[in-house]
Specification:
heterodimer; A: 69 residues; mainly alpha; 3 helices; 49% helix; B: 244 residues; 2 domains; 1% strand; globular; binds zinc ion
């Protein structure tokens, strides 16, 4: 596997922070929003009215360890 | 390149979510059903009418569970890929496969195991609806403290390595992590809302199933993501030759 790379002393190259920053911010927010909808929407806080999202993902919310009920 | 990593993280997250769903359905759902039976018996004993179902049990335990686990897992996979993109090349001379495995182990510890020790997962009918706000806040506080403590411990290890070597530095980091978590868990408010008559075996099995789901999800993420990155990313993105 490492034989296709530049040799035993090859160093991993970090991705520059300037390239990373927009992804970290927007990607990070989007991912957290997804987790929020499964974990906490219509529980402690609510963006959408009603209880449908909460009830729909209810078993997942409990089994993934989020507080519920 | 970061976009490719993010997409890959989410896709691996979906695969991890599928595996976790099979486990959840097999080992978690029977306990959820026992807990709901307990709730119904309690309601009947109090003479309350059963709560109307907004979503049927069939949907909740099937497509609802699948959706929940996959969305959660894809989200975690994406976050994982972003942390990987930042950490790669910045935490020492480790390749993608090893870094991915280490990060997944760290995530399992900091996001699942440590927070669950203080605020363990609970099946339906355990928990007072009145306290959902404070319970949610405490749960996320515990996750934040746990991630911060692990980060501090890793930074300490890095500082200790030059003088004390990897082994002793790691012991020092582990000690710091345990002390920080012990303090946090002593100081944070205790929550115990398990009804006195709730079957202990159901509670135990439910919590073990929940831990199993997290283990499967993070192991899949850690091993599969690292494997794919190592195999498919162009070497010029991953390594620079020693002479450069
Ligand atoms: Zn619930």
């Amino acid at each position: 596997m490492s034989d296709i790379h530049a040799g035993p002393a090859a160093q991993p190259v970090p991705i520059p922070v300037r390239t990373l920053a927009p992804w970290l911010i927007f990607g990070g927010l989007m991912m957290m929003l997804m987790i929020y909808f499964v974990g906490a929407e219509e529980g402690a806080t609510s963006i959408i009215k009603g209880m449908y999202v909460h009830e729909y993902v209810h078993d997942g919310r409990h089994l993934l360890g989020f507080p519920c009920h | 390149m970061v976009g490719t990593l993010l997409m890959r993280g989410m896709l691996v997250g979906i695969v991890a979510g599928l595996l976790a769903f099979v486990f959840a359905k097999t080992f978690g759902e029977p306990q959820v059903n026992h807990a709901i039976d307990f709730e119904s018996r309690m309601e009947a004993a109090r003479g309350d009418a059963p709560e109307p179902e907004l979503v049927s049990r069939e949907v909740q335990s099937g497509i609802g569970l699948l959706t929940g686990v996959i969305v959660y897992s894809a989200g975690m996979g994406g976050l994982f890929a972003l942390v990987f993109a930042y950490a790669y090349g910045r935490v020492g001379n480790i390749g993608p496969r090893a870094l991915s495995a280490l990060l997944a182990a760290a995530a399992l510890l900091a996001i699942a195991i440590v927070p669950d020790l203080k605020y363990p997962p609970n099946p339906p009918s355990v928990g007072d609806p009145e306290t959902i706000g404070i319970r949610t806040a405490l749960f996320f506080t515990m996750i934040a403290i746990s991630i911060a403590s692990l980060t501090l411990s890793v930074l300490l290890v890095r500082r200790l390595i030059p003088r004390h070597g990897l082994w002793n530095a790691s012991l020092g980091g582990a000690l710091l992590f345990i002390v920080l978590i012990a303090f946090a868990q002593l100081l944070l408010k205790d929550i115990n809302e398990v009804p006195a008559a709730f079957p202990a075996v159901v509670l135990w099995r439910f919590r073990i199933a929940s831990l199993g789901i997290q283990c499967i999800m993070w192991m899949t993420l850690g091993f599969l993501f690292g494997y794919l990155v190592e195999k498919t990313m162009a070497p010029r993105w991953l390594y620079r030759p020693a002479s450069a």
